[in-house]
């Protein structure tokens, strides 16, 4: 538990730096571009992150899960890199389809379509989950934090340069693309210094041969990751398609400020997963303690949003972005996600990635299907309510699944041997 809290501390240090600098580059982008152009900017970012999120496999989990075996992480790393290459190939096809059809469903000008496709390509080439997995396998969270700090620093510097020299949507997209490349390079360098990466072990067959259920785990975690994207980036695209670029831009501002807790939830999840894999006997107790801590942190964060959110929104984004209550609703959704992060990690670490996927899938599909109705009812606040409802249903499902898992574990636990009577 001490090591877990120390690792979370390192990750939160990186998140804290990211959060601080994100306020800088968000302010530069919103005030330089204005409401409409920031909406185009938000749509392009969502396209790139949608393509990467859907095509990308959660290879860091594979490195952590199978890299701890006796033979070391060479085969797990080779499998992960092979999946990364597959992700790039699939992602390029998906990017071509989404950007090619964008004029039919997205409020994106024709002159920005090449920019959008280029950003998708850069995002795919900057996939970095494999080196992240190697660092987490060795619990090298200090190195991870240092490498990941490159992204917000380059992004903030790039945003400042764009605001001065190229105050357009293209200028800011170039800044974001440079940050993606920089952080990917930093993580690969950090991982390479810690663990020798043997390119001759790149294969899609070694790990599945040694672990018969590998492909089922791969597809389950990939679908879960795609659902996480669907509840965030695809949502921005759909909001843009329904409400236009101003709605997409407004929702992104509210989401970035209000759903900072979701990033915190991901941080907790990524830190606790390797611990749960290694600590099988105490996994339930560890997840329960982390959920209790998360509940307190979530309540405090929501209260902070209620009291400080309005002046922060006015200071950072300006009077054009009137999304305070949307931000509050998304903060509540983030608090719910924060509580569920350790529960979801416990399910995945117990080999129930498929169960976790289904628990995520049903509420997400319901929320996305109700989006147009919700926006017709109450605009961006309606969209935020669909996110909050999906999060609440998912976390409730995780809780029920964990209870069932505990009961099964108790039922199948072997009885202690009774010595024979003499």
Automatic annotation (TrEMBL):
Pfam families: Polysacc_synt. The chain crosses the membrane at residues 7-26, 38-57, 78-106, 112-137, 293-317, 323-343, 355-377, 383-405. InterPro entries: Poly_Biosynth_Transport (IPR050833), Polysacc_synth (IPR002797). It comes from the Bacteria. GO terms for cellular component: plasma membrane. Its main location: membrane. The keyword Transmembrane helix applies. It is found in: Cell membrane. It is a multi-pass membrane protein. Keywords: Cell membrane, Membrane, Transmembrane, Transmembrane helix. The keyword Cell inner membrane does not apply. This is O-antigen/teichoic acid export membrane protein.
């Amino acid at each position: 538990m001490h090591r877990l809290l120390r690792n979370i501390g390192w990750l939160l240090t990186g998140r804290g730096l990211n959060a601080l600098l994100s306020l800088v580059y968000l302010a530069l982008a919103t005030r330089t571009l204005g409401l409409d152009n920031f909406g185009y900017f938000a749509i392009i970012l969502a396209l790139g992150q949608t393509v990467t999120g859907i095509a990308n496999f959660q290879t860091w989990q594979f490195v952590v899960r199978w890299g701890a075996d006796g033979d070391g992480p060479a085969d797990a790393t080779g499998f992960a890199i092979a999946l990364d290459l597959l992700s790039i190939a699939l992602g390029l096809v998906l990017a071509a389809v989404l950007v090619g059809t964008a004029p039919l469903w997205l409020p994106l000008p024709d002159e920005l379509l090449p920019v959008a496709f280029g950003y998708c390509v850069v995002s795919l080439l900057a996939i970095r989950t494999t080196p992240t997995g190697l660092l987490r396998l060795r619990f090298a969270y200090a190195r991870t934090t240092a490498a990941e700090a490159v992204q917000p620093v380059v992004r903030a510097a790039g945003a400042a340069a764009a605001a001065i020299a190229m105050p357009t949507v293209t200028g800011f997209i170039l800044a974001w693309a440079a940050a993606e490349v920089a952080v990917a390079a930093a993580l690969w360098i950090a991982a390479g210094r810690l663990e020798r990466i043997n390119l001759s072990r790149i294969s899609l067959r070694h790990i599945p041969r040694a672990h018969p259920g590998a492909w089922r785990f791969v597809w389950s975690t990939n679908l879960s990751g795609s659902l996480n994207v669907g509840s965030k980036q695809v949502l921005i695209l759909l909001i843009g398609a329904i409400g236009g670029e101003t709605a997409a831009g407004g929702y992104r501002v509210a989401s970035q400020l209000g759903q900072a807790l979701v990033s915190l939830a991901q941080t907790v999840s990524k830190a606790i997963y390797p611990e749960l894999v290694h600590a099988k006997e105490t996994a339930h107790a560890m997840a329960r303690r982390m959920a209790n801590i998360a509940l307190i942190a979530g309540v405090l964060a929501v209260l902070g949003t209620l009291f400080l959110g309005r002046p922060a929104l006015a200071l950072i984004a300006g009077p054009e972005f009137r999304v305070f209550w949307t931000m509050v609703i998304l903060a509540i959704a983030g608090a719910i996600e924060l509580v569920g992060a350790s529960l979801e990690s416990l399910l995945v670490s117990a080999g129930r990635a498929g169960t976790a996927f289904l628990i995520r899938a049903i509420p997400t599909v319901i929320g996305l299907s109700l989006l147009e109705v919700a926006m017709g009812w109450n605009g961006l606040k309606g969209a935020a309510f669909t996110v909050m409802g999906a999060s609440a249903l998912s976390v409730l499902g995780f809780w029920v699944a964990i209870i069932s898992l505990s009961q099964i574990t108790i039922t199948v636990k072997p009885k202690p041997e009774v010595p024979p009577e003499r």
